Amino acid sequence: MLSKNKIKLIQSLNRKKERDESGFFLVEGNKMVEEALRSEYQIETLVCTAQFANQHPEIRSKAKELIEADRDSIQKASLLQNPQEALAIVMQPELNTPELNLNTDLCLALDFIQDPGNLGTILRIADWFGINTVICSENTVDVFNPKVVQASMGAIFRIKTNYTNLESFLLKASKNQIPIYGTFMDGNNIYTEPLTKNGIVVLGNEGNGISESTSRLVTRRISIPTFSTNPNKAESLNVAIAASICCSEFRRR
Amino acid sequence: MLSKNKIKLIQSLNRKKERDESGFFLVEGNKMVEEALRSEYQIETLVCTAQFANQHPEIRSKAKELIEADRDSIQKASLLQNPQEALAIVMQPELNTPELNLNTDLCLALDFIQDPGNLGTILRIADWFGINTVICSENTVDVFNPKVVQASMGAIFRIKTNYTNLESFLLKASKNQIPIYGTFMDGNNIYTEPLTKNGIVVLGNEGNGISESTSRLVTRRISIPTFSTNPNKAESLNVAIAASICCSEFRRR
């Protein structure tokens, strides 16, 4: 049985304040819950149908609490429009500055990404391209926002993220001669520019791009050229699309 | 003054049936309305603040009807959470099979894309990469859905779209020796595969990929390889992300 209090707790995880206070975040849907079960993350409560529980015997050892409920009850608790057979209340891991060797590794740095769908999609892209670390500015949307979690399609369980003062992070990197790339309208053509195997790729805010204070620390300004010949052509690409093209270019070479 | 009837008409444009019956679609927000004003599209009704009207004197000749309203009234009519100073009721253009020369042109073909955000984003990508035509299967989400329009960021006014029986379209193209590309998990590595300047790139449904009947007509199976070394790695990329990487690869060469 899914108690009223449990439903209240589940729904409270839509709000950052309550996520921070409880230390939990919400994972919804069969595939996402399966990803949580495969991960190292600690599952506080797993709510699922009897059928889902039978199909996943590992639940009993992985989840601290198992609540069997029918689809209607799950629907009542869910934040999704079309909930499925399972959802999980998961412990937030501690976000530490990841052990990152920027002399060999490539990482993404996000400067004030506001849209949760964009952040989730960027995590999914990083995951695909084998980029294990995403550093977020302190004003970037919370990675445990349910919309970020769902859009990441499980990448949230694999990618190391941290929130930090982006300027300090970049300043330290630049002192160590780490290449710092950033996307700008007037940067060098990414398709012809030499790209290193290691370094940091900074991606900027949806509306305003990379902030002025951050852009001063970018040492290699790159740009994704448009191929449009229309006089009213588009001004920009969505930040997740820009991220995917950057990751593709860095990795294919 | 924004009458109750006008508010009702505006909100009815969220539904395909009512869009089809009226022949209109909805465009919201300052930038999007500016794009509509710059386009060839016919604006039936433009609702905006006095300030917006003053800043855009061309409105009076471009819009059949101009209604000045304050922000609160626009808020009442709007489908957006954060409406701005303008929205427009725009005439749907007739969707014809575009004049497409597949011996020289590249186009995208969408096989049952369901998510309006994905379709809008794909239009924006096509626009950026100078791909002027997007052919949609009949079961692909309606291009005049307000969420598609908004996600396209104005690309909807520049890209030619049409809905058609995708199999017939591809069959005809294949008889004319037009290369038909499609993305599959087990296709040839897109980074090393020879790509032609012309042809069709088929993109498949979010959950199921390219349908079986369509995939039989694909002559060049391509794949975006993952660079992840994680044993639990991601199964797939979002379709708009796959579209962006395909377009980038076709165009950069």
Summary tags:
alpha/beta, 60s Ribosomal Protein L30, Chain: A, homodimer, 11 helices, Alpha/beta knot
Description:
The structure is a homodimer of 253-residue chains. Chain A is α/β, with parallel strands linked by helices. Chain A is 35% helix and 23% strand. Chain A has a six-stranded parallel β-sheet. Chain A has a four-stranded mixed β-sheet with strand order 1-4-2-3. In chain A, α7 (116-128) packs parallel to α11. The interface between A and B is large, with 37 and 37 residues.
Topology, element by element:
The structure is a homodimer of 253-residue chains.
Chain A: H1 4-12, H2 16-22, E1 24-28, H3 30-38, E2 43-48, H4 50-55, H5 59-62, E3 63-68, H6 71-77, E4 86-91, E5 106-110, H7 116-128, E6 133-137, H8 146-151, E7 160-164, H9 166-175, E8 180-189, E9 199-203, H10 212-215, E10 220-223, H11 239-252
Parallel strand pairs in A: 2-3, 5-6, 5-9, 6-7, 8-9, 8-10
Antiparallel strand pairs in A: 1-4, 2-4
Helix pairs in contact in A: 7-11
Report a brief summary of the structure:
By secondary structure, chain A is an alpha/beta fold. Helix content of chain A is 35%, strand content 23%. The first copy, chain A, has 2 domains: 4-91, Ribosomal protein L30/S12 (60s Ribosomal Protein L30, Chain: A, 2-Layer Sandwich); 106-252, SPOUT methyltransferase, trefoil knot domain (Alpha/beta knot, 3-Layer(aba) Sandwich), CATH 3.40.1280.10.
